[in-house]
């Protein structure tokens, strides 16, 4: 898809080399994976046969010659099992090496694609103002500079955000920020898709709609700049009198990526039910060491806490008796 009249995206020789390197790396990885799968399947087949034969006991009517023959066959199978295991290990190493090379090749292509996109956007801002200077394109870098949609906003670009705030009572003195969680941030843009003809504007609309249906993570570059957006709403206005252009309204929602980690060991689940609350409650506590002459009343005045609160959180049965050297929580 051309970006604007009389302008075509031309891939450099370096870009073609990167694409070729990625294809070759993909082929090498596919071959290595196929070889590993074959070796792994052969190893497991031999291993099952060894386990089956090793578990057999000597039959009552089995002669010594028959028993020795079976044991000899079992030894050969064990040697074959070890050999198959070594082949599988080597094949796994080759596959992992090819996988790392493929990942590196893809990273170079992605980096080059994003660089081409940024260069194209800057070029467009300088020479093609009639088509709008606000750019929308995929953030993953898998598509090149040909997958950019330029839009000319007719209204201002709007950005909004909202938070979920807990509505129940919280401890006195606890940080209120721990009871708030970001709900969503959104960007709304109303503008015109400009094309050489109706088909060009329609193709840009279809590209936006395809990104919406496939939940493609996008970058919006205009007065507002954000890299992690999904199209949550897409509308077109049929009532306007544009011939070759389309008036559209796009609503983006900011998405946050979560890092998922897995535990190395399985932990036994507790039968005791736990209450799930909204928001992140990571509290920071302060403590002090009691000195001779200290009283809970004096400590409560210094740290703006009630005597009953300090006694409760520190499990002090008698507030009138505290002992030097003990540590207590004061916040």
UniProtKB/TrEMBL annotation:
<feature type="region of interest" description="Disordered">
    <location>
        <begin position="263"/>
        <end position="285"/>
    </location>
</feature>
<dbReference type="Pfam" id="PF21821">
    <property type="entry name" value="Dit_like"/>
</dbReference>
<dbReference type="InterPro" id="IPR018392">
    <property type="entry name" value="LysM"/>
</dbReference>
<feature type="compositionally biased region" description="Basic residues">
    <location>
        <begin position="97"/>
        <end position="109"/>
    </location>
</feature>
<dbReference type="InterPro" id="IPR036779">
    <property type="entry name" value="LysM_dom_sf"/>
</dbReference>
<protein>
    <recommendedName>
        <fullName>LysM domain-containing protein</fullName>
    </recommendedName>
</protein>
<feature type="domain" description="LysM">
    <location>
        <begin position="286"/>
        <end position="330"/>
    </location>
</feature>
<dbReference type="Pfam" id="PF01476">
    <property type="entry name" value="LysM"/>
</dbReference>
<feature type="region of interest" description="Disordered">
    <location>
        <begin position="33"/>
        <end position="109"/>
    </location>
</feature>
<dbReference type="InterPro" id="IPR048494">
    <property type="entry name" value="Dit-like_N"/>
</dbReference>
